[in-house]
């Protein structure tokens, strides 16, 4: 379910001001791997009878029926293999081909956004996520990753909207913690405090939310 997707990843969550360490956030070293799973990816792993998944999907591309539905899905799966292997250029080529064959593939757009984000092409990644979410808005992981990219550019109003969209689909404590940081960055400390408290209500052991709550309370009392 969507909650399991988000646990531990903190959605690559939001943001942390390194120079001051003012806000704490759980970044999760496995964020990218969870992202891939969260977008419904890694279909190729289900085919264990093939010792070489690259051979499997390359062969599938070569012999796929000419129907658009089959061919775009095969290119998407090959892209996922390359993405998992950190071959980002090859992955992007496959997702581009996926979208050339079927521009309405929301997974193609979201996978492309993930790849571009990992290449450091944030503006392009944001556009790709927006295109995918326009086709399929009910993906909490994609909403959260979009929010994380926006907050990384200090686009806090847009990030807040994306986090709220994600929360409406998966009210996970990490999301409340991230929302609290975005609210605090906008100077809305009372709302931020409420978000941190909600994170702790859902997970009393959430150390980052607790630290952020303490920081926000101190800021408000000044």
How is this structure best summarized?
This protein has 222 residues and is an all-alpha fold.
What features would you describe in this structure?
The protein is mainly alpha-helical. Helix content is 68%, strand content 0%. It has 12 helices and no strands. Helix 4 runs antiparallel to helix 5 and helix 11 packs antiparallel against helix 12. The N terminus is likely disordered.
Topology of helices and strands:
Elements: H1 2-6, H2 31-38, H3 53-63, H4 68-84, H5 88-101, H6 106-118, H7 122-135, H8 140-152, H9 156-169, H10 173-185, H11 189-202, H12 207-221
Helix pairs in contact: 3-4, 4-5, 4-6, 5-6, 6-7, 7-8, 8-9, 9-10, 10-11, 10-12, 11-12
| Gross morphology | elongated
Strand content: under 5%
User: Main sheet?
Assistant: none
- The H-and-E topology, N to C, reads as HHHHHHHHHHHH
Mean pLDDT over the residues: 79
Termini separation (Å)?
A: 42 Å
User: What structural class should be given to the helix and strand makeup?
Assistant: mainly alpha
Question: What share of residues is helical?
Answer: 55-70%
**Unreliable runs:** 1-21, 26-50
Number of strands: 0
Number of helices: 12
Supply Rg.
19 Å
Keywords:
222 residues, mainly alpha, 12 helices, 68% helix
